[in-house]
Amino acid sequence: MAFWCYMLRCADSRYYTGHTEDLEVRLAQHQQGYFRACWTYKRRPVELVWCEAFPTRHEALEAERVVGGWSKLKKEALIRGDWTMVSHLARPPRERHTRFSTSLETNGVGEAEGTDCFERSREASDVEKQFSTP
Known about the structure:
The protein is an alpha+beta fold. It folds into two domains: 3-90, GIY-YIG endonuclease (3-Layer(aba) Sandwich); 93-134, no CATH class. The protein has helices spanning 23-32, 57-68, 72-80, 83-90, 93-96, 122-131, and strands spanning 3-9, 15-20, 47-54. The chain has a three-stranded antiparallel beta sheet with strand order 2-1-3, with helices on both faces. α3 packs antiparallel against α4. The longest helix has 12 residues, at 57-68. The termini are far apart.
């Protein structure tokens, strides 16, 4: 028996992540508003946008916990199957928003939008040592 982790796109463009042992039944329950307390109840209709089968309920639940905690951008990359972007978005924000520079003043990393990261390169330090006075 397979267990499923799945993601729904709701009418308000938000994503819901869940897990189940019977995907067809659970999707019908979401669409029909079977559980009034469910997060998707007031966000219908919903659309299945991603699912993956797992051999155990524990693995499906763990996938739900992990994927459910992702940003909207990362979830959309998963939906598209864009593993390069999923990997990119897994890095800390300071490592994602880098621009490259040819300046000796940086190690190839310029100041990026939304960050204050500005690292000096070994080459820049070497140049400064050549011109520094004792």
